[in-house]
Structure formats: C-alpha cells, structure tokens
Amino acid sequence: MPSLFIGTGRSSHTRSTTLEPHDVKEQRHSLSTQEAGLSAEGYKKTLTRRHVQMIAMGGAIGVGLFMGAGGRLASTGPALVFSYALAGIIAYFLMRALGELIMYRQSSGSFVSYAGELFGSKGAFLTGWMYVLNWTMTGIAELIAIGLYFTYFFPGVPVEASALCALGLLVAVNLFSAKAFAEFEFWASFLKVAAIVLFLIIGAYLVITNAAVGDGHASVTNLWAGEGGMFPRGFMISILVLNAVIFAYNAIELVGITAGEMENPEKEVPAAIRAVVVRIVVFYVGSVTLLAMILPWNQYKAGESPFVTVFDQIGWGWIGSVMNFVVIVAALSSCNSGLYSVGRVFRAMANNGHAPQWLTKMSKRHVPYAAIWAIAGVYFIGVILNVWLGGSYAFDLALNTASIGVLFTWAAIFACQLMLRKKRGKVSALPMPGSPYTSWAGLIALGIITVLIGFDTLVGPDGEVFHLGLYTIGCIPLIAAGLWIGWRKVRHNKPKSELYA
Predict the structure, then answer these.
(1) What is the maximal distance between C-alpha atoms in the chain?
(2) What is the DSSP letter of 496?
(3) Cβ atoms 352, 495 nearer than 8 A
(4) φ, ψ for residue 192, nearest 5 deg
(5) Quick count: other Cβ atoms within 10 Å of Cβ 478?
(6) What's the rounded Cα separation, in Å, for the pair 436 and 47?
(7) Which of 364, 186, 176, 365 is nearest to 258 (CA)?
(8) Are residues 250 and 406 in contact, defined by beta-carbon separation less than 8 angstroms?
C-alpha cells in the first residue's frame, strides 16, 4: 500500500519532472472557444466581482459556526476561542498557498488539477476522491441539519421531506447555470454576513453594558469566572477540538474552483485572498469570543445554535427564530457550494480517467450536469440512511469524518505550493509569504491535528462522554482500503485530453 501515496511511484502516463507549461496546451484550443468567453475546460466565465467577493466571504461562514460552535463551547469551554484563532492562522496561510497556485493557473479542477500536474496521476486521484469524501459527508450532514431546523417552524414535517426538498432546490439552481449558483451564494452570503454583523453589534453592546442575560450578566469575566477558568476541561481539549474547528473553515478553498469561471480572476483572486484574514478574525474569533462572554460556557449545548441560545436567554425569542432561519440558509449555502464544487472536481477527475467517463458531460449552459446529478444522488441516499440510522451524535460524526477530507485537501494545497516552487520557482503574482517554511508549518500542524482526532470527545447534556474520535479514526482504514482498490483499478487509464495529462 505505500505506493498509493502521493509522490511514491508513478503510473505509465504520469508527466515527467520537467513540466510542460499549460499556456502551451491552452494555445492548442480553438480561438472560437476563447472568443465565446469559455475557459480551456469549457466553462463559461460569468462570475463577477460581487459574486467572487461575497462567495469568498460567505464560504468562511457556515454551519460549523452557526450550529457547531454551541456543542463545542459546551465540550471545550472558553478555550474554544484559542482553537478558532489557531485554526484561523492555518486557514490564512492555506488561502495564501492556494492564491499562489490560482495565480499561476486558473482551473475549475483547482487543487485536483494542481496535484495532477505537480505530483502526477496518483496525486490527482487521491486529492480528488478525498475532496469528494469531504463534501459527501458535509452535504449529507447539512441537509439533515436543514431538515432538523425546519421542524422548528413546521414540527409536523418529516426531517427527510424538508431535506430532500432542499436538495431538489439546490440541484435546480446548479443545473441552471454557474451564474445562478453565484447569485444564490451572493444573497445567502449576504444574509449570513448581515446576521453575524448584527450579532457582533448586539453582543458587544451586551458585554459593554454588563446586561442581564438569563441568570447572570454579560461580561468579559465569563471567559474565566467559572470553575477551571478558561480551560475548564483542561488545556489539551482546546487542541483536541481543532479538527472540528478546522471543519468550520471548510469551503474557504472554494475560491480556487470558482476561479475557472471568473470574468477577471487576475484582479478578483488577490483581493479575495488578502481579505480572508480580516474575515477570520472578525467573524469567527470575534463571534466565539462574544458568545463566551455573554453566557457561561456550560449554558450552551450540542444540537442548538449558540446564537439561538443567547437570544432565548435574553428573552428575544423572535430573534432566535430569525437565527434559526439563518442557520437553514447557511446549511443551504454550504450544500449549494458542495454541489457546485464537487460537480467541477468530479468532471476533472473523469477527464483524468479517475472517475466514470459519463461524468464529463456538459449541458448547453456549460454546466457539468452529469457530475451534479451524481453527487445529488449520493446526497439523496445519504439523507435516507442518516434519518433511518442516525442517532443523537450522527451529525457530529458525519462532520468529523468530513474533517478528514478537509485536512487532506488542505495538506494537498500546501504540498502543491511547495512543489510548484521546487519545480517552477516563484512564478505567481501572489506569492506565499514565508515560503517554504509557512507551508511546511501548515503541513506539520495538519498532521498533528489528524493524529489528535482519535482523542476527540463530546460531552452530552447528561454528562455522558461520547468518544467521537475513536469512531472517526476507525473510518480511516476503510477509506484507505477504498482508495487503494480504486487506484489499482484506474491507474492505467489515460487522460481524456492533453489539458488533463
């Protein structure tokens, strides 16, 4: 099995160490394709500046924050603030590494395409399927979350019914056009950002005025006032929870996939990448810090949005209802991103020979409809199975499993940046700061987080401990076996065209 991993061994059709510049390949494509406003891969370049900026902003705000932060506060305590800050540093350098790759070459296959060019066919295979694993589990979990939160407004509607209706809506949006996806994301991201900004304003006011909230008062002292101070569960828990926090930043890499359909990626990508650190500090670290100040950490609970908890304790139940609606929108937005990104990645994988060829099919609107239907079918089956087999920790287990795919994808991006510098030198207009040391630091951090997954736990409302990490780690041998079998089957397949070689 060692030959499965990136950089070990080569397939019969893997490129040599000396890379052929992609601009030479792209010049071989017909001028009519370029004049039609299409990318080299056949996608229509329709995403404008406002789309890109809001997708980049909204991609960093999802269910991991709106829903997951409550359970993590209950399990970790105020130390969760440090976890979000540390993960934010990794996420920032991840985006800078991705930015260097995007400015080198824009591709809707993004990191899968870069892994194929820089590490060979095996690199593309592993990166692609691990990304699919990520979004398979993420999409299913978030559709279930939509169903669960929909019952807040309509208790009589079965969870699977509302989840599948949401899936139908998102499939229709993605099949219509890339611009329809972008418009949906623009307004969903606008709502998410507006909700967070509203909370930051109200939360800051509550803390500054020492307002009464529930049985206590909002205060900075809530960060350390309880038994155990900022680390009521111990210092190590703030490290062990990092894999779940990393998942909260999932989808910030979406900018790399949308680059292949941007009207002007040379201008939009640098602006989106450079601004990500501000969003991380303000939206994530700021929100979690205020949550820990407004209420004692032990008043939050898994399965309930921490924002809803705060407003219910204040007595503003109607705002809690609004936040429940925002959680639904956040889950819709994330699942929408999953359909979009996996659709493009699936098509790139099929063109590489790593997925069934029928996934390469495009509609007249330049949408990879076959790949979108494929991932939608997986979501459909997953929703049915999750509702049928799901337990009280099913949502967290699905997200934890997805985090394995997130960690691998992020590691692949750091590795591609390092290999790009090694093979091509500094060829990007947006170089990674501190390279190669920052990318190596990112890889080491992700490796440590992967090991620590096995120690992750959740504390239930009755104080029972659920060893979430052991179940997650148990999935890794199964994933590895599946990848090994899959690679043995497709390793001799040749790319569909020189563009994917």
Answers:
(1) 70
(2) S
(3) yes
(4) -65, -45
(5) 9
(6) 32
(7) 186
(8) yes
| Cβ-count burial 71-104 (b if 16+ within 10 Å, e if not) | bbbbbbbbbbbbbbbbbbebbbbbbbbbbbbbbb
| pTM over cut 0.90 | no
CA distance 201 to 258: 32
121-153 vs 468-490: helix crossing angle, rounded to 10 = 140
Task: State the angle between helix axes of 68-76 and 394-424 in degrees (0 to 180), rounded to the nearest 10.
Answer: 100
Nearest to 248 by CA among 122, 63, 459: 63
Q: How far is CA 435 from CA 421, 422, 439, 440, 442, in A?
A: 9, 11, 6, 8, 11
- Angstrom distance (rounded) from CA 36 to CA 46: 11
**Alpha-carbon span 191 to 182, nearest angstrom:** 14
- 431-464 residues labelled b (16+ CB within 10 A) or e (exposed): bbeebeebbeebbebbeebbebbbbbebbbeeee
Q: Are 189 and 55 in contact (CB under 8 A)?
A: yes
pLDDT 10s per residue in the chain (501 long)? Answer: 333 333 333 333 333 334 444 444 444 444 444 444 556 666 777 777 677 777 766 666 777 777 778 878 887 888 888 888 898 899 889 989 988 998 888 776 677 888 888 998 888 899 989 988 888 888 888 888 888 888 888 888 888 899 999 999 999 999 988 888 888 888 888 888 888 888 899 999 999 999 888 888 888 988 887 777 888 877 877 787 887 788 778 777 777 777 667 777 777 778 777 777 677 778 888 889 999 999 888 888 877 788 888 888 888 878 778 888 888 888 888 888 888 888 888 888 888 888 888 888 888 888 888 999 999 999 999 888 876 766 556 666 777 778 888 899 999 999 999 999 998 888 777 889 998 999 999 999 999 988 888 777 666 656 666 677 777 777 888 889 999 999 999 888 877 655 444
